[in-house]
C-alpha cells in the first residue's frame, strides 16, 4: 500500500511515521485519538481520484480532514489501518465571478483567506465560517455543517452554497446544481431535480470528498454596529433573542448563560453584530436596542464591538489556560424552548460543583441564533495532563449529550456523538445508510461513523 | 536557569496550553498570510507549531521516542516566532523545540555533520566558522578601539567575519557623535546562539558565561549589539540562563534613533531609493523592535520606504533561522527567495535588513532579482557621508 501511495503522491507527501500519525489522530477536541496507518497530502483532484480508486480496490478506509479544527471527532478514524487525507494543500481561489456574484474555491482554503481576498475587491461572504475561521477550511466546515458567523441572518452553511464538486468513492467526480452542466457555472443550487449538494453538507466525509465549493458573494457592507445587553433572567434574554429573530435584526447574535462575561454581568447576556447599508444599520440598530429594552435588557456600551473584534481568539484566551482538554456538544432547539434545555444542564453542573472545582474543570453554556432557531453549545474544558479531569469531562459529555438529545436538541455536527443521536431519529439513519451503501458499497469513506 | 532552556519536562505547562486551534498554520488576518514557512514547504502537521507541540506532548507522555526521522523533523524549525506571535494562548513553540533539541543532543541522537562542525569549530576557535582569532579583529584595524570601557560593542561572529562593514560603520557613526565604544577584540567569543539552536546548551551557557566575565572585566556596564542574535543572547538568554544581568543591553537601531532624535548625528547625504525593510525575526518578533529601524530609514533624505505585504509581526522569515540554513540549505534558500519576491512585489529598489544572517540569506537572491541589498547601519553611515571599506553589497 505504501508504495502505491508513493506512486500517487510522491515520497514527500506520504507519511507512515508514528509521530506524524499521532498528530492526525485527533482534532481540536479531546475525544479519544485513533491513529491512521498513513497520511497523504494531495495536491490535485486527480491524485484524490487515484487514491479512491486504490482504496476501493484495496478495501482501505479513507478519512478526510480539513484543518482538524472541529471538536466533534469527524476526522478521527474509528477503524484501524486507514489512510488520512489532509486537504489543506488544495486551497486555490479558482474563480471570482462578479457577474454571477459567486466565488469558486478549493475545499482546503480557509474562510479568512476567502474573506480577505473578497474584501480587497469590494465583496464579502454571507457567512464567515466557524469560530476557527482563521484555520478552518471551507470544505471541512461544510462537511460538518459548522455553525457560522452570520447565522442569525443567513442560517446554516447550506444557505450560501451554490454548488459543490465532489469525488465519490471509487474516484468518480460530480458537480452539483447548475454546475452539473459543463456549459454552465455553479450559480444555482436547486437544479436538475434533486438538491444533490444537500446530500454532502454535514455528511462528515461519509459519502464523498468535497474538492471545490461555489459560494454566494455580496457587495461589501457599508456600515457595522454592535450592541450588548445584560439580563437579570434567562427568560428575559430569551424574549429578547426571540424578538431579534422575529424582526430579522442581527447579522450575528450570541447569548451567554454561563459564564456571563464580567463586562456584561447579570444572569444572561446577548451580543449582536449588525451590518449592511448605512441607513439600514441605523434603522435596525435602533430597533434591536428597543427590542432588547422591551425584554428588560440593560445595554452595556462598548462590549459588543470588543467581543466581535476578538471573536476568533476569545474562547482560547478565556479557556486556553484551563485546557486544552475541550469537549463540546451542541444543537438546535426552538428559541422559546431554550430554558427547558438549559435549566437541567445548569442543575447538572450545580450538583457537581465540588467535583468541578476540585478538578479545575471549566464549562460554558450559551446560545447562537440561527434565523428562527437557537443553537445551544455546551462546552467542557480541563487540563488534559490531569487524567482524572480528562476522564471526568468525557463522562460529563456523554451524560449531557444524552440529556440534551433527549430533550429534543438536534445536532448540526454529529461526529462521535452519533451513537447518542442515532437512537433519537427514527428511520432517518436507515435511509442515510441506504444512501451510503449506494454511493460507497465497499464502505471506504469514514467507516464506523454512521 | 529558567524553564526556557532546560529539558522537555520543563515545558509541560506550555505544551498543555496548546488549544489545537491551528491558527499557527494559516491565520489570514491583518496581514498575516500563512504563518509557518516550513509548513508551506513540507505540508504535514508536524512541520508547524500545532504538530510540533503534539509531538512534544507525545514525547512527554512516553508515547513515542526520538527516532532519526523525528530528529530530522525537529531540526526543521526556523524559530521565527511567527507561531507564537499569532497564538491565542501564546504557546512558545520555539522554546519547546530548543528543549527537544537539547534532549536530542544530550542523548547523542543528533546526526547532522554541519552541526557537528559548528560544535567543533566553536570548541576549537570560539566561532562557528572555524576561522582564526586574528580575523575576528581585522575590521577594527586602524580604528584603535579601547579594550576597556563602560559602553562595549559586541559585534559577534557573523558581523566580524562575514559583514565587517557593519561593525566599521557603527564605530564610525558613533565617533561622529563623540561616542567611543570599547571592544573585546580577539578576546570576544561566539555569543552562543548557534549552540542554543544546535541543542548544545552546555556550550551555549559556557560561551555566555565567559563573554560575560570578560565584558565585566573590561569594565562594561552597557552592551551595544548590531546583530539581533547577539542582542537576544545578552538581553534575554543570558539573564535567564545565568540568573543575573549585570549589563544594560542595546540594539544599534534603538541607539542610533536616540542619537538622531537628539541631533547628535545627522543624515545629510541624499539617497534617492525606494527601499523596503525586512524585519529580522530575532529583532522583530523575538525582541519586539519593529519601529526604530523604520524611523531611521525615514530620516534619510531621498529614501522612500515601502512595506512588503507581510511586515512587522507578520514578517516572513529569511529562512536562515534555527540552524535550518545549515541543515536544510536548499529549503532555506527557497524561503529566502520567497521573501525577496515580496520585496520585488513591493516595487522596492533596495532591500534593507539589519541582521547579518538575513543579509547572507538574501545576498545572491537579491542580486538575481536586480535588487540592491544593504545593511541598515551601513546605509546610515553612507547617509552621513562615511566611507566604509569592505563593502560587499551587490548594489
Report a brief summary of the structure.
With about 450 residues, chain A is of the alpha+beta class. Chain A contains 16 helices and 19 strands.
User: What's the overall average pLDDT of chain B, rounded?
Assistant: 93
CATH 2nd-level architecture of the largest domain in chain A: 2-Layer Sandwich
Strand order of the largest sheet of chain B: 2-1-3-4
Largest interface: A-B, 43 and 33 residues
Task: Describe what you observe in this structure.
The complex is a heterodimer of chains A (450) and B (395). Chain A has 450 residues and is α+β, with helices and mostly antiparallel strands. Chain A has 3 domains: 93-219, Uridine Diphospho-n-acetylenolpyruvylglucosamine Reductase, domain 3; 223-311, Alpha-Beta Plaits (2-Layer Sandwich), CATH 3.30.70; 315-413, GMP Synthetase, Chain A, domain 3 (2-Layer Sandwich), CATH 3.30.300. Chain A has 16 helices and 19 strands. In chain A, β8 and β9 form a beta hairpin. The two termini of chain A are 26 Å apart. The mean pLDDT of chain A is 94. Chain B has 3 domains: 3-106, Orthogonal Bundle (Fumarate Reductase Iron-sulfur Protein, Chain B, domain 2); 139-258, Rossmann fold (3-Layer(aba) Sandwich); 264-383, AF0625-like (Rossmann fold, 3-Layer(aba) Sandwich). In chain B, β3 (222-225), α14 (228-242) and β4 form a beta-alpha-beta unit. Chain B is globular. The A-B interface holds A 12-13, 15, 17-20, 22-24, 26-28, 39, 41, 67-69, 86, 88-89, 110, 112-113, 115-116, 132, 134-136, 312-313, 316-317, 319-321, 323-324, 326, 383-385 and B 12, 16-23, 25-29, 33, 42-46, 50-51, 54-55, 58, 63-64, 67, 69-70, 73, 88-89.
